[in-house]
Design brief:
This protein has 120 residues and is an all-alpha fold. The radius of gyration is 17 Å and the shape is elongated. The protein has four helices and no strands. Helix content is 72%, strand content 0%.
Length: 120
């Protein structure tokens, strides 16, 4: 299951970077704008699909990319050193963007339910 999530996260990140997306899907800007709301609601527990553990993993990935301490230092092996950071960054951002799609759908459904519109 985790490998499927990782592959999906990398695919969403790649599609977002290339600009290819499904017609009617949220734009990259809408996804990025949704991330702070999604994380805040995940931390409060109001968004049920993003638990604190997943937020922690994303935060640790971000810290790893920004940290001067690396598993493969850039100074010793430059290509691999930057490569591991790139893979971690792609995974973190791909995961966030992928979950942001689901979050935006959840928000829209929640809004339709509150306004009394029929879902179907």
């Amino acid at each position: 299951m985790k490998s499927v999530r990782r592959a999906a996260a990398l695919k969403v990140f790649w599609q977002t970077m290339r600009g290819s997306r499904v017609a009617g899907a949220p734009t990259a800007g809408a996804r990025l704008g949704a991330v702070p709301r999604m994380v805040a609601q995940g931390m409060r527990g109001t968004y049920p699909h993003l638990d604190r553990g997943r937020i922690l993993v994303a935060l640790l990935g971000l810290v790893y990319v920004l940290s001067p301490v690396d598993a493969i230092p850039e100074i010793i092996v430059p290509i691999l050193g930057f490569g591991d950071d790139a893979v971690v960054a792609a995974f973190v951002f791909g995961s966030l963007l992928s979950e942001a799609d689901a979050f935006l759908e959840w928000e829209a459904e929640k809004s339709r339910t509150v306004t009394g519109q029929v879902i179907g």
